[in-house]
Design brief:
Order of helices and strands: EHEHHHEHEHHHHEHH
Helix content: 40-55%
Shape: globular
Distance between the termini: 29 Å
Strand content: 5-15%
Strand order of the largest sheet: 2-3-1-4-5
Mean pLDDT: 92
CATH architecture: 3-Layer(aba) Sandwich
Radius of gyration: 16 Å
Largest sheet: 5 strands, parallel
CATH superfamily: P-loop containing nucleotide triphosphate hydrolases
Number of helices: 11
Number of strands: 5
Structural class: alpha/beta
Number of domains: 1
CATH class: Alpha Beta
Length: 204
């Protein structure tokens, strides 16, 4: 199995819904931050990647058909190079809407962990996005820079821009698969994120 989708969009752009949708379309797992929670042995690999020591991508993503969300999205250039036939999926969102969501979910939760998890997360953000997660202006500047860079660097034949409101159709067209006769999964709202966080008793 090889990656058919490399996600280049930031977290909080519908990436958990994408994970569920892509697993439905591809019939195989999609790597997401949720996968890292289940595989703590991957934490030092991502930390090393943030230091410039790239892992064996084929081995890391063994058994997966797609990868979206942090931390994989932070390394989309390297991952897309390792999987040259994969579509590069750029999930997008209105910047202000993204900031309101990220600043009330993943950013504060990233500060609540410690040890190797905190070190990995800090390194990924600092090296690939911004370390100033409490600073709205810094994050929005990083957001705009991220998407401008992705649009400039991803070859047009490989690029698929997608918004959560687009649903199944663009994904199915790009993958050349039928549109499922079911609603597109929409999950991980801010409220659901906080409920999940409260329910996790054995997290990092």
């Amino acid at each position: 199995m090889t990656l058919r989708i490399v996600g280049a969009g930031l977290g909080r752009t519908g990436t958990l819904s994408l994970k569920i949708a892509l697993e439905r379309l591809l019939g195989a797992p999609c790597y997401h931050m949720a996968e890292v929670f289940a595989r703590p042995e991957h934490v030092p690999l991502w930390h090393a990647a943030a230091r410039g020591e790239m892992p064996d991508w084929q081995r890391l993503f063994s058994g997966h058909a797609a990868a979206v969300d942090w931390p994989a999205a932070a390394f989309w250039p390297e991952i897309s190079e390792a999987f040259p036939e994969a579509i590069v999926l750029l999930s997008v969102r209105d910047p202000e809407s993204w900031w309101r969501s990220a600043s009330s979910t993943i950013f504060p939760s990233s500060r609540s962990v410690s040890g190797p998890w905190r070190e990995m997360i800090d390194a990924v953000f600092e090296q690939r996005f911004t370390g100033r997660l409490e600073d709205r202006s810094a994050c929005l500047e990083a957001f705009e820079r991220w998407y401008a860079d992705a649009r400039a660097r991803i070859p047009k034949p490989r690029l698929l821009e997608w918004r959560a409101s687009d649903g199944w159709e663009p994904l199915c067209r790009a993958l050349r698969v039928p549109i499922p006769d079911e609603p597109f999964p929409r999950t991980n709202t801010t409220e659901e994120f906080h409920a999940m966080l409260a329910a996790r008793t054995n997290g990092p």
